[in-house]
């Protein structure tokens, strides 16, 4: 069943182009408009919501953080992301105009179930984004949008993450289309770009040799840092989580802008730091800011590993290693930039002789609070 791969995780990483493609499949009509009737939420409800709150745990929560950047930009609806267990035990401000989006691969994560129940008690509408048909979270929600990643066996989530991000993009584009805001005219363009992503994910998978060699050379590493800005921030957090879970290495993800507010004190000679570099073609000079972050940590002895777009030459002088991904729009780029980080964690754990499918102390679905 591992399809010739050494582990389920390796197989699932390679299933990712399909997971994205299948999640996109059948969700547009003949004219190219998005159709998400399956969600079974009234259009009038979706028109009236004035806030979105994503609740999820772990990797699913990082998918929600990626969604926040896209949904706020496309829909101009405030979008908060909260860990389900934190949401449940404070006094969150939600009402009938709030759309709570519960993201879960298994649909059985107790922390997320409790958040869904709490949100509904407060009168919020709850939409589940879930990979498991008929599981508890979609059953207890008002509506469901399924990811079609197929069964995920390895404990660490990979293909479900890409499918969750894809479903969130569909939701954001659908809301923009439905509400007819300023961005509505661009929905078709973004959708076309989204349909190009499975082939681009495949391109990343076709050039993994360098990251594999890097991982094998780092089997003794004690600590790894991950930096990103904008959508690269949740990608950095996810890269750190994968490394903790699989290779039992101390890892932290930071927003690169926070560096000088504290974390830069951690940087000493030889400290490996992955930096998720935004597209140089993007707005807001984010790229220039991250290049200067790379310079700052390099000057303090860090071993810098950049995940950067094809054609981005500006990072070359400052990065010890550059792992390349195809060009894409900034908001869609997490589907590409996270893949080398997943592979890095999987390879490094394998190089340490660990069981990547069943890391110690972890369960595939966490059915207790
Ligand atoms: C990380 C991982 C966990 C899950 C989290 C939520 O690799 O697998 O962090 O993402 O436990 O699980 P689901 O999505 O099933 O609710």
Automatic annotation (TrEMBL):
Enzyme class, UniProt record, top EC level: transferase
Keyword Secreted in record: no
Domain (SIS) ranges: 41-181, 214-359
Active site: 364 (for fru-6p isomerization activity)
Annotated keywords: Aminotransferase, Cytoplasm, Glutamine amidotransferase, Repeat, Transferase
Reactions listed under catalytic activity: D-fructose 6-phosphate + L-glutamine = D-glucosamine 6-phosphate + L-glutamate
Protein purpose: Catalyzes the first step in hexosamine metabolism, converting fructose-6P into glucosamine-6P using glutamine as a nitrogen source.
Name of the protein: Glutamine--fructose-6-phosphate aminotransferase [isomerizing]
Species of the source: Kineococcus glutinatus
Classification lineage: Bacteria, Bacillati, Actinomycetota, Actinomycetes, Kineosporiales
Gene giving rise to this polypeptide: glmS
Residues shown, of full length: 261 to 629 of 629
């Amino acid at each position: 069943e591992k399809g010739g791969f050494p582990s389920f995780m390796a197989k699932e990483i390679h299933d990712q182009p399909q997971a994205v493609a299948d999640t996109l499949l059948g969700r547009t009509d003949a004219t190219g408009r998005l159709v998400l009737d399956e969600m079974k939420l009234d259009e009038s409800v979706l028109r009236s919501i004035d806030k979105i709150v994503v609740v999820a745990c772990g990797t699913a929560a990082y998918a929600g953080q990626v969604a926040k950047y896209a949904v706020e930009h496309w829909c101009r609806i405030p979008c908060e992301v909260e860990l389900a267990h934190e949401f449940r035990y404070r006094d969150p401000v939600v009402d009938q105009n709030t759309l709570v989006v519960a993201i879960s691969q298994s649909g059985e994560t107790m922390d997320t179930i409790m958040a869904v129940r709490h949100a509904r008690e407060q009168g919020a509408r709850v939409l589940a984004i879930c990979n498991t048909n008929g599981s508890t979270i979609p059953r207890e929600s008002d509506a469901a949008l399924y990811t079609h990643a197929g069964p995920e066996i390895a404990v660490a989530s990979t293909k479900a993450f890409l499918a969750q991000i894809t479903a969130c993009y569909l939701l954001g584009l659908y809301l923009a289309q439905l509400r007819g805001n300023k961005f509505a005219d661009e929905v078709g363009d973004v959708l076309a770009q989204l349909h190009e992503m499975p082939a681009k994910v495949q391109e990343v998978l076709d050039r993994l040799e360098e990251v594999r060699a890097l991982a094998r050379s780092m089997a003794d590493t004690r600590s790894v840092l991950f930096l990103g800005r904008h959508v690269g921030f949740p990608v950095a957090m996810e890269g750190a989580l994968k490394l903790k879970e699989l290779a039992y290495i101390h890892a932290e993800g930071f927003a690169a802008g926070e560096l000088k507010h504290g974390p830069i004190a951690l940087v000493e000679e030889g400290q490996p730091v992955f930096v998720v570099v935004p597209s140089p073609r993007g707005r807001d000079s984010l790229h220039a800011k991250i290049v200067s972050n790379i310079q700052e940590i390099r000057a303090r002895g860090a071993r810098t590993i950049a995940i950067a777009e094809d054609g981005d030459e500006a990072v070359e002088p400052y990065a010890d290693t550059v792992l390349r991904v195809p060009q894409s729009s900034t908001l869609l780029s997490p589907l590409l930039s996270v893949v080398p980080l997943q592979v890095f964690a999987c390879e490094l754990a394998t190089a340490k002789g660990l069981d990547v499918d069943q890391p110690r102390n972890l369960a595939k679905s966490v059915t207790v609070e």
